[in-house]
What does this fold into?
Amino acid sequence: MEATRKPLSPQHNLKIIEVEIDTIPERCKGCGICVELCPKDVLDYDPKLNMHGAHPPRVAKKDDCVGCGLCEEVCGDLAIFLRRKGEQK
Amino acid sequence: MMARDVLTGTHFTQGDFACAEGAIAAGCRFFAGYPITPATEVAERMARRLPEVGGVYLQMEDEIGSVAAIIGASYGGVKSMTATSGPGFSLMQENIGLAVMTEAPIVIVDVMRGGPSTGQPTKTGQQDLMQARWGSHGDYEIIAFAPSSVQESFDLTVQAFNLSEKYRVPVFVMLDEVVGHMRERLVIPPPDQLEIINRKKPAVQPEQYNPFQPEKDLVPPMAVFGEGYRFYATGLTHDETGHPQTDSAEEQTKLVKRLCDKIRVNRDSIVQVKRLLLDDAEVCVVAYGSVARSAVAAVNRARERGVKAGFLGLTTIWPFPDKEIEAIADQVDRIVVAEMNYGQIVREVERRFDYRKITFVPKLGEDPHTPDELLSSIMGYRK
Amino acid sequence: MTQEMHPLEKFTRKGMIPHIWCAGCGDGVILSEFLRALDELKMDLNKVAVVSGIGCIGRISGYVKLDGFHTTHGRAIAFAVGLKASRPDLKVVVISGDGDLFSIGGNHFIHAARRNIDITVICSNNFNYGMTGGQAGPTTILEGRTTTSPYGNIEHPFNLVHLAAGSGAVYVARWTTAHVRRIRESIKKTLTKKGFTFIEVISPCPEQYGRRNRMGEIMDQFNWLREKSVVQHFSDPLKAEVALDRIVVGEFVDLDKPEYTDLLRRQMMTVQGTLDKDGRLTNAPL
It folds into this structure.
């Protein structure tokens, strides 16, 4: 895959993989990008403050997640990631 | 067919070439430098010889990059060196500090010329000695040699590599331009007669390796990039794992002291001097580099005239041969210090010997002191 | 909620995460995408070395579990050149900042590019010197406010894409930290392409530059990157501007020409004809 975009088409055999969102709250510095960027508004802010004085993300609407992975991709703190459902923790 | 790396035999060549051949004989396979009078010949010789023996000559864009590059090669496991003169030496100082801090074995040849600044590029000088010791910021120790002949240029360059590997420290070979460009007989021994020292390698597996954990000799074994150790070195103050410790006073104290002590506690095996007729000497001439040649002749002439003169030649400038000066301090009435600058090593002598009994003979520009010039200083003290 | 390992933690040094970078800093994204690129390429991690200079992004060599070196200011490329020339078997990556690479380190950049030596240079460009408190640098936009340009920057910034292309780089790309997947693909390209490759990553600096130039909250600065960037692959590097209202991103140069360590090897073979299969110097004593 190159840096130039290739459009999707029906012949691509796409499968939606069931995922779960894991967070590491104490690592989050509270930039808020994952919460704001999520296309399905799955995340909101945990009212509790972590050790950085930030509100880490919290999964609010678990069933709306489509596993796009943007939250994991934009996080610069390694504080949120996706795990396949049923996968060993 | 690979050319010989050790050119065993008798040669008639200049000091700069002898340094280059000494480096290759010691196992140097990487040179990064920038042309500068009077050290250019070292680079030119390395450019021709290194590809023959499977080494790399890289002409960097400046002297600052040259030292960074040789530290890179050193961390890649390849013995490396550069050669320069005063102005380039000044540029190198920051990264010399980096080599000290990351304990990278490197050798730097400084073929000294008249300074300060651009000075007299084609004329000799001995004006960089203090800079070799104190040029970079912070507290540290280094080793510096001052060859007096073409033969010594070869021998001391081999030793410079050995000591840099043994102590993981930058070692300087301080030729003056006269030694660098004069042509003399050079005898290169067969390879099996050359003592070569290589850096200690880690005895543990990568998971247990701490890159800056010293052994009893205060020197940590050095892993090499690309062999699975995946370790990290930084110019920041660091602990034994190599990670930055920019807040701890304890780590700063520990590290700075160790970097200095690893040379200080071993000084007896590092320091070398040349002694001539010192047993009953009443006046001693202290000199190094090309001046040492005249000093020896002057001392002999003085003896012919009935003066009990002796000679102490400083082969190692740093660590300074302080104990060797102290050893003769009670015995001699006067020390004559002759150097081609306006007062550098004489200050070290003054710290160990009554300054009122020191005759300082500076000379700037063109040629080293002649034997007769030194002879008159030796004879002069008696008045 | 879990206290389990993030998938990228297998590449980071124990105890070094959380890193020192601020909330919303682009450096964290660069770290993550670099690690993902290594993961996807399945590279031999014993043969990758990361060299960084002084600056916030310079800390990266301490975070990744690879052979790493943190040099003096501006000298990362010079170190990398020495390392690569003596060890052509290693993949050497320089990750450093705009000031480190293009102010004090500018000379080393243009010469390494000129030589076309096989190293990858990734620049985190956040328009100022963040680590020291937000001073102006060679990429600060005209009129930008920093602690050393309190009345507005009156110096034109470098066009890094143009500079790299003009110096001879064989691959030049610019992305922003909003283009996460593109960064990763470009990094994969540079890790597998022979020659001097360069990626400029525009990063927000919310604490210093962003705050002083009233660029809004972290999300506003992220959106600025997204909304104002326009992809113009292989357009003229001279016109690849970075301005408040337009950030031209994409791949700009992707060509091939003889690489330095290859030329070196060929010359050595001409002189004496012996090199091992890794291109490693024989007779290297260690």
